[in-house]
Amino acid sequence: MTRRSASASFAPGAYVFPGGGIDAADATAHPIAARRASQGDLHLTQAIAAIRESFEELGVLLARHADGRPADDADIAALKRDAPFAAQCQARGLTLAADEVYLLAHWITDRDLPRRFDVPFLVARMPPGQAPVADGSEQFEPVWVQPADALARHQAGTFFMIFPTIRTLERLEKFRSVDEVLQACAAEKPVWTSCPRAGLLRGAETRFMEHESAYGELALVSPDGQMVHHLDWRTDEPVRLLRNVTRLTAPNPGVMTGPGTNSYLVGDPDSGYIAIDPGPNEPEHLQRFWRAAGGDIRMIVCTHSHPDHSPGARPLQAMCKVQPPILGLSSAATARPASEFRPDRELNNAEQLSVTGAGMQHSLEVLLTPGHAANHLCLVLLEDGLLFSGDHVLNGSTTVIDPPDGNMTDYLDSLDALNAACDRHAIEFILPAHGYVLGSAKDAIARLKAHRLQREAKVMAAMRQRPDGSMDDWVALAYDDVPQRMWPVAQRSLLAHVQRLEALQGGR
Ligand SMILES: [Zn+2]
Fold first, then answer.
1. Ligand 1 centroid vs 24 CA: distance in angstroms?
2. How far apart are the C-alpha atoms of 327 and 341, rounded to whole Å?
3. Pair 312, 324: CB distance under 8 Å
4. Ligand 1 center to 309 CA (angstroms)
5. Distance 209 CA to ligand 1 centre (A)
6. Residue 78, by phi and psi: left (phi above 0), alpha (psi -120 to 50) or beta?
């Protein structure tokens, strides 16, 4: 890595990998570059640009003589860093070793940054016997550093780096050798592609990649990438996600509830509001929720009857001047006593609930989704293509399937139903009852399903390995990747898997 000049226009003073833009001459240097059969024209041009930049900035020469001998100090001394690169190499009989350069990652600068870059990050093994020497104008102090050391120094405040560099090192840190890195790149496509998004945590700029939990919420709230959204979980203030969707988180954070239960309001001051999941019976939370709706709640919908979702419904109803109906599904006979619930009216699958104001309608379509609980339902906000997923899909944790009210086969079937709803209604975002908004809805659902089936395979293997084993034995085997303190809860989902497997075997 090298340190950029303090007066550079982009990332001044940051430690970076050498690099720069593609020159017209890079594309015309193909004839003097070696290439892999699988290396496309664009990748070859990028590799040539990387070889040229490495030479101009650091005097590293990734080239070979006709007899295959790598370039050495004599070659480096003979070439001028500021003269046309390819022509000099050709005159000296050198072939550019572009076939040794691989594509590692594809970074696109965040939407909110004034300068936009679309950058391949490339990797190659350092040629033997060479030592980097910085040009002293753009780059300074070349340093060989282990990814973990660079990250530790950055943490300590002595090695400034920008986000893509940090995240690239975090990935590189996981490889044990240069060989492993190059192997991972053999497929000729980036190991990852990312266009990060920025939000505020404790007031400070914080960036996230696509796979991170806050990414979807930032995409929904700030599609153009403006850094305006606060990601701190607060229970004392509603968060406006869209003009017509507000979230208020209940003060019940915990192992099972994450940051707390998300209560949602859908509507506007003219139409009045539909309240989704009032949460536990927490008077202050219900007060704030009621106030966020200006007291004008037209319906209260509960996604299911667990104690962190529905007990607030009756007291919230009682606070309203015109009492809104409580809607949902009655708890089944299988529900635990704390989850008993009767709505004022039972909902039907595909039924629509809407509120209408000054030319604006907000319509929720009901999707019955048993699995997490027998009386679980999800809601699609049709005008905006949003899915309120209750506890069926969560962000940051995996929902528990607790038999007999929970049922694994129902859960998986409901995931399929949600996936179909995403197609039908062009749903991009999922608003869960716990955690931030999820983006790329269909991918999130597919990941969940894959995760469950993977777990099922582990459960099956555990049962085969210990046919006479107890649930305690099987949880230790099938949930060996989950902290032991979570095993009592995991055992409920394990039971759901076991029951499903037994039902599948019995052909029931
Ligand atoms: Zn629940």
1. 59
2. 11
3. no
4. 7
5. 28
6. alpha
Which residues have CB atoms below 5 A from the ion given as ligand 1? 306, 391
* Residue 49, amino acid: A
| Distance (Å) from CA 261 to ligand 1 centroid | 10
Instruction: Identify which of 214, 230, 219 has the alpha carbon closest to the alpha carbon of residue 385.
Output: 219
8 Å CB contact between 427 and 380: yes
The alpha carbon of 88 and the centre of ligand 1 are apart by a number of angstroms equal to 69
Amino acid at 263: S
- Please list, in sequence order, all residues whose beta carbon lies within 8 angstroms of the beta carbon of residue 121, skipping any fewer than 6 positions away: 17, 103, 104, 105, 106, 107, 164, 168, 190
CB-CB contact of 494 with 479 (8 Å)? yes
pTM: 0.86
Distance (Å) from CA 434 to ligand 1 centroid: 10
Domains of the chain and CATH, by start: 2-195 (3.90.79.10), 196-232 (no CATH), 239-440 (3.60.15.10), 453-505 (no CATH)
What value, to the nearest 5°, has the Cα angle with vertex 433 and ends 429 and 436?
50
Residue 508 has what pLDDT?
Answer: 47
- Alpha helices by DSSP H, listed for 65-200, are 73-78, 85-91, 147-155, 163-172, 178-184
Q: What is the pLDDT of residues 300-311, one digit of tens each?
A: 999 999 999 999
Q: Is beta strand 204-208 parallel, antiparallel or unpaired with respect to 386-390?
A: unpaired
- Confidence at residue 506, expressed as pLDDT on a 0 to 100 scale: 77
Taking the C-alpha atoms of residue 505 and residue 459, their distance in angstroms, rounded to an integer, is 14
Cα(275) to ligand 1 centroid in Å equals 17
CA of 433 to the centre of ligand 1 (A): 9
Residue 78's contacts (CB-CB under 8 Å, 6 or more residues apart) are: 92
For residue 239, give every residue at least 6 positions away whose Cβ sits within 8 Å of its Cβ, in sequence order, or none: 230, 246, 247, 248, 249
DSSP structural state of residue 258:
B
- Ligand 1 centroid–CA 335 distance in Å is 11
Low-confidence stretches of the chain (pLDDT beneath 50) = 508
